[in-house]
Amino acid sequence: MSPSSSSSGSPSSTKSWIVHGIVAGAAISVAIGAAAYLGRFRKFRSRVVGIIPARFASSRFQGKPLVEILGKPMIQRTWERSKLATTLDHVVVATDDEKIAECCRGFGADVVMTSESCRNGTERCNEALQKLEKKYDIVVNIQGDEPLIEPEIIDGVVKALQAAPDAVFSTAVTSLKPEDAFDPNRVKCVVDNRGYAIYFSRGLIPYNKSAQVNPDFPYLLHLGIQSYDSKFLRIYPDLQPTPLQLEEDLEQLKVLENGYRMKVIKVDHEAHGVDIPEDVEKMEALMRERNLT
């Protein structure tokens, strides 16, 4: 899932939202003693790898990772943005296609070949993790069709998972635009007052008695980036599909239905995904506007 929409957020405002997203870690520090907590925090889930799943076959846009965005393959632009994240020890591309692999090696990326049987990006990340020589504590699933991914958001989901030892998964949300309220391709999320996910849906949640969008309610839009505890990622493919997951067609629900906790951060930024060929021109215009050519 990689929603596509416009953004007015800046890196500084993104960072300010992320601070709110990981404030629970500071509260724990006060509760159990700052020195002891910080000493453990430095070692907890410290090794982090970013994996960019990329497949050639796509019903809506075949060969999408290789499409050129202002003269560079989209997968290269995503890789370059990901490399700017300070929390990642390594960034690799996981693909089942030799054309994509050859392209990525050409611009200097490390590539892990994965099978065509992977049903989603999470399973592809898991297979790639097993093939890496080094061991990692956290795996970040970075959407390959978001060439404007903010490095601060990558760092935010990593830090959120590091600060929440009871969670196995972290992700990001942003404010939902009223015009996207009933779009099933815009996945909505609700969280509890400690920043843990309660539910994800393609429908509008919460849904009020008037059956109308409440302009005063802070609805949340789920963004595609996700990070996992590596031990959890290894068992994820073995978890049986769950009723809510199948009904909504959202893999996050399999995590929640099996009783695992998911930390959510809010960021002042929206994903700029390339879902269909018509999105390429929009992406190029946005990049020119931001002088990111």
Automatic annotation (TrEMBL):
<dbReference type="InterPro" id="IPR003329">
    <property type="entry name" value="Cytidylyl_trans"/>
</dbReference>
<dbReference type="InterPro" id="IPR029044">
    <property type="entry name" value="Nucleotide-diphossugar_trans"/>
</dbReference>
<comment type="pathway">
    <text>Nucleotide-sugar biosynthesis; CMP-3-deoxy-D-manno-octulosonate biosynthesis; CMP-3-deoxy-D-manno-octulosonate from 3-deoxy-D-manno-octulosonate and CTP: step 1/1.</text>
</comment>
<dbReference type="GO" id="GO:0016020">
    <property type="term" value="C:membrane"/>
</dbReference>
<keyword id="KW-0548">Nucleotidyltransferase</keyword>
<dbReference type="Pfam" id="PF02348">
    <property type="entry name" value="CTP_transf_3"/>
</dbReference>
<keyword id="KW-0812">Transmembrane</keyword>
<comment type="similarity">
    <text>Belongs to the KdsB family.</text>
</comment>
<keyword id="KW-0472">Membrane</keyword>
<dbReference type="GO" id="GO:0005829">
    <property type="term" value="C:cytosol"/>
</dbReference>
<dbReference type="GO" id="GO:0044281">
    <property type="term" value="P:small molecule metabolic process"/>
</dbReference>
<protein>
    <recommendedName>
        <fullName>3-deoxy-manno-octulosonate cytidylyltransferase</fullName>
        <ecNumber>2.7.7.38</ecNumber>
    </recommendedName>
</protein>
<dbReference type="GO" id="GO:1901137">
    <property type="term" value="P:carbohydrate derivative biosynthetic process"/>
</dbReference>
<dbReference type="InterPro" id="IPR004528">
    <property type="entry name" value="KdsB"/>
</dbReference>
<keyword id="KW-0808">Transferase</keyword>
<feature type="transmembrane region" description="Helical">
    <location>
        <begin position="17"/>
        <end position="38"/>
    </location>
</feature>
<keyword id="KW-1133">Transmembrane helix</keyword>
<dbReference type="GO" id="GO:0008690">
    <property type="term" value="F:3-deoxy-manno-octulosonate cytidylyltransferase activity"/>
</dbReference>
